[in-house]
Structures are given as structure tokens and as C-alpha cells.
Amino acid sequence: MKFSLLPRSWSREKRSAVAISMAAAAMVLFLWALGTILSWMPDPIGPAAEQFAKGTLLTVQLTIVAGLIGILIGLFAALGKLSRFPPVRWLVGFYIWVIRGTPLLVQISFVFFAVPELLPIQLSDFNSGIAALAINVGAYNAEAIRAGILAIHKGQAEAARSLGLGPLQTFLYVVFPQSFRVALPSLVNNFVSLLKDTSLVTLIGVVELMTATNRVKAETYQPVPSLITAAVIYLALTTILTQVSNALERQMDVQNHH
Length: 258
Fold this sequence. Notes:
flat; 9 helices; mainly alpha; MetI-like fold; single chain
């Protein structure tokens, strides 16, 4: 027997939309109240509440920005992998092979330390972190989106073209919406993994949650409360993201059946 805080008389679509709004509001409220809540904790957490709060906010910013860019990279990479032109397929395949076959820590180090040596650009630690995270998650998103596109029967695209839709319109209005729904569970898993992977940018000095935790740990010589606090914050963030994703999946499932 399932328990729901929302009225059973509401349609599934309405409940999904409200659930998404509630989860988003919970995330905003959590970020807003985190510093105050932690300030009530005993030493060493209370005095370091602001550090944890700022680190958590930066973690969420990294996740959202890199995640959105990663979806765009994944979409174009998926289309490239399905391209009729062999050089494009080879290039995209090489990108996915390299990214999925090397540690994210190495990729972050390469973007921050090696790219300025090879190219006339200088990225800040924050922008380097976003670039590395987006490139990494983009490779995984590419495979998820490609699988979603391949799951759509070719007959649907042929039917759309027979109705006068061009290739771009067929993709945008027929193929992509359905393929995105198929790929959504994998994309959500990648997004949640990305949230946890942001802890690796501590290597290049980005003051996200894990960097803040390490600083508090070094200043107080009390690793247990610092690490437990970080773990609880990560768990809260991933739980809220999972609720958003579950509601979004239900919403898209409802729309698919209209």
C-alpha cells in the first residue's frame, strides 16, 4: 500500500508536477537553512557552519552547470555517434573511449594543469572543474541518449516524413521526445553520480563541500564529525535529486500516454 501526501483525487500528471515543485522547493529551503541548522551543532561543526553551507552551495552550482552542459555535449555526441559520416563517428567514438577509459581525477588535472600549457587559455579553478565534469558526464550521457534514439522504431520517423516533416522537425518533434524519455533514468543516474563526483575538484582548489570538510578537519583535528556531516549533506542532496527525477519520470510517462 503506497502512502502519498497528495490527494488521491488529483490526476497523476498534477501530482507529478506538484511533486517536482515540492522537491525543488525542498532543495532551495535546504540550501537556505543549512548554515543556520549547522550553527546549532556542537564543536567542531557549529563554528564551521558557514564553511559547510558555502561549500554545499558551490557543490550544487557545479552539479547544475556541469550537468546541463553535459546533457548538451551528450546529445551532440550521440548524434555524432549515429552520423552517416565515418570521420564524425570515429572522432566521437574516440572521445567517448578516452573519457570513459580514464579516471575523472586525471581529466580534472589535465584540464586545469595541462590545457593552459597546450592552448592560449587560462581557466579559473571553478571553470576548470565545470569543464572537466561536463566533458566527463557528457561521454556517459552520449551513450544513454544514443541508446534512447535507437530504441525508437524507424517506422515512426518514416511516418513523420510521409506527413511532410523534414529531418530536423522529425527529430525534434517525434524522435527526441520519446528517446529522451527512454534515456531519462540513465541521465538521472549520471546526474546523481555527477553530484558526488564534484568532490574530486578539491584537487584543484575549488572550495566545494569536500574541500570545506577537509579544511575543518585539518583545523580541528576531528575527522569523524566533519566527515559524518559531509556524508549527511551529500545524502540529503542526492535524496532530493532522486525525488525530482522520480517525479519527472512520472510526468513524462503521463505525457507519453496522452
